Queue: 2 jobs
Job 1
Amino acid sequence: MNTLYWFTRDLRLDDNTALLAASRSDMLLCVYVVDPRWFVPGPFQCMAMGTHRWRFLWQSLMALERSLRPLGQRLHIAFGEPERVIPELVHHHRISRVIRSRQPGTWEARQWRTIRDQLPDAVCQQFETLSLFTEGSLPMPLQDLPETFSQFRKQIENTGERYSERLRIRTLTALPPPPGFPDDNRGDCPPIPEPQHPALFTGGENPGLTRLRQFTFSNHDIDHYKDTRNALDDPDASSRLSPWLANGCISVREVAETITHYEKTETRNRSTYWLWFELLWREYFFWYALKHGANLFRRDGVQGKKHTATFYPHRFKAWCEGNTEFPLVNAAMNQLRATGYMSNRGRQLVASCLVYELGLDWRYGAAWFEQQLVDYDVASNYGNWQYLAGVGADPRGLRQFNLEKQAQQYDPDGEFVRRWRGQSDQPVGLHTVDAADWPL
Ligand SMILES: Cc1cc2nc3c(=O)[nH]c(=O)nc-3n(C[C@H](O)[C@H](O)[C@H](O)COP(=O)(O)OP(=O)(O)OC[C@H]3O[C@@H](n4cnc5c(N)ncnc54)[C@H](O)[C@@H]3O)c2cc1C
């Protein structure tokens, strides 16, 4: 049997059940497809792929290619629309099976359906490699996924399991050979600009594993995680594993396993538990996105709650460019544009500002994050935005933060605002015209 393995958000060899299944073939074509539509602005004025993530992704692809080589394989990187590229490769190489990891997101699901429809003679299979649990090992059917995180957490904790059993496939010393080494058109991919600011992250499985080890066994930062995780700009205050997790360079089960191992051999406390707790948030949003499908992207959210918001271009521009009346928000937005990263606290504050202070449709904010974040993850991003906007997995609703109080608490000396130039000389106010439409 000839198999095409379509790498997506699982850019690793370790703990990859989908690749393991694909390895049971006579010939194996390993493919990654760079979609040109990622680089074109969408309905919310933003591109799906900004430069930080693109750089990280490319590094991860190069690292993956290096890991595949000793196994007799290479990575075919195609620049084109997957709905066209995958069927063409299947026909050209007489492929009888296509495998990839199961992903949340309606766009991703539609692509998969379109490809399957074009390949009636091929077996198309998806495996769950991006989550702690598989759908079958969740303590509830997907359609009964609780509407709140706490209920989900309680049900998971009742099982006594932190993740589904992990498959170690590092021990594989070979993969089936590829059907020749056809040229790919990777040279057509957009160029990767040099970073303006020293890059915080390097893509690839090894840098991700190194970071995991650093945060746990080497530096023991995990011991204080619960107390430090809200810091706005401290590289060791939280794990900063999100870019590798979002691209699947490391397996979330590996992270959970490391936490458990750390607790057995080093320290077990409320901070070590809390790191797993945060992974469980990620898990919750993963299944939440699969359950709710297109409702994840609707203005009124999964709750169908009327969310009054409009679009003010000048307010959105000011928010994106760090030019609002809120120095803390500006600083965090400048940090995001410069580095592709923002702390969880920062994300909550800028989201609250966009929704409640600027009165904008939350989906514009989510789209900007999608373009900017190096760790962009469809389920975590849209799940968190809905939550903050009060139309998602939050029975309380209205998560408005008092930005002044937050500044006093998290940036009492104004160091963060200074470092990221949050004091704007000419901040853009809420209105640019008066009631008679005269410019203010
Ligand atoms: C508006 C908004 C948008 C967000 N968009 C994304 C996104 O696109 N991609 C993304 O990975 N995270 C997103 N998050 C969640 C969170 O902010 C980041 O995961 C976290 O800041 C990454 O830093 P870290 O790896 O140091 O996290 P840590 O605090 O060390 O947490 C460990 C891991 O747990 C997961 N995690 C932590 N917090 C959350 C959370 N609230 N929701 C889901 N998973 C979580 C992440 O995988 C993270 O790497 C968003 C949060 C908000 C409020």
Note: The longest strand covers residues 27-34.
Job 2
Amino acid sequence: MSDHASSKAQSPELAAHGAKLKVAVLYGGQSGEHEVSLMSAASVMEALDDRKYEVTPVFISRAGEWAIPLDDLRKFDVVFPVLHGPMGEDGTVQGLLTLIGVPFVGAGVVGSAVGMDKAIFKDVMRAHGLPVAKHIVVRRRQWLSAAEHVASLVTAQIGFPCFVKPANMGSSVGVTKAKDVQQLHVGMAEALKWDRKVLIEQAVPHARELEVSVLGNDELQASVVGEITPSREFYDYAAKYLDKGEAASGLHIPAPIPDALAHRIREMAVEAATLADARGMARVDFLMNGESGEVFINEINTIPGFTDISMYPKLWAASGIPYSQLLDRLIALAMEK
Ligand SMILES: Nc1ncnc2c1ncn2[C@@H]1O[C@H](COP(=O)(O)OP(=O)(O)O)[C@@H](O)[C@H]1O
Ligand SMILES: [Mg+2]
């Protein structure tokens, strides 16, 4: 895949004025994915080349307190938000950085917000003819006032099993699989802890989970396709982060799928990221019906998991861009936009 991974944006002319680039790494944050951010940021900070960068970790507490005054962000050449979920990956931090005029890694306000909200993201995909699993969107108010009615709609239009997920979250926080109406009630209560808006989605049968990494500003490149084989019934929080060693979920790079299918999925990944306006970086996740071969776009992550064993960097490593070079590229892309 070196044709697609070939370097367009060169490594930043870091030492143009003889000094190292001052990079702030934002991590922690207020979302349910705080812990995941700690893991991602530790890897990023470890791998940023200290001959090129002067790295300052900027911790954000669960309560939203920043380790430095916000105005001090202006002192940096570039900010790398390694924040997952709401209040970090959703356009809020991107809006702040845009306002104060500091370049930052990853998608801007619109791409971040569209990527964060699973309901809006799916509407955008559907509007452009890209395949998404059938779902309905339910608001807290609707559920609290007419749960029985919603449950009968789900039974008639979506069926069981179905997935119940908060619209704005990630890392499978709040996501459950409901096999009947009773489990739908339990799942709704769980999802509503995290968001006022919930997706109830048809389960893709025999689901295979395929993922593609995307990189670039105006011209997006796609990595090879990877596949995840979850250690549990689905790829829930425990399957992602808690199961270790023998019991861990599997990452298969490249995914064992025919070339033509991989090609189509990579094209769809670039199209999805372009439509969502997710410049810089994104990981686009697919669900494929393992029997029929039907493919659905599941979601996009504009700040994907970033440990050195995470799918986003591993897909690039397999496509010819090792971890620390990937960080160089992302910083160069941030400076270029
Ligand atoms: N429609 C679906 N069919 C089959 N599995 C699903 C479906 N939706 C979600 N899942 C499972 O739940 C996991 C988490 O859902 P996802 O939409 O990716 O949310 P998150 O943003 O939290 O990762 C997926 O990786 C997959 O294992
Ligand atoms: Mg996911």
Note: Residues 285, 299 surround magnesium ion (ligand 2) (CB under 6 Å).
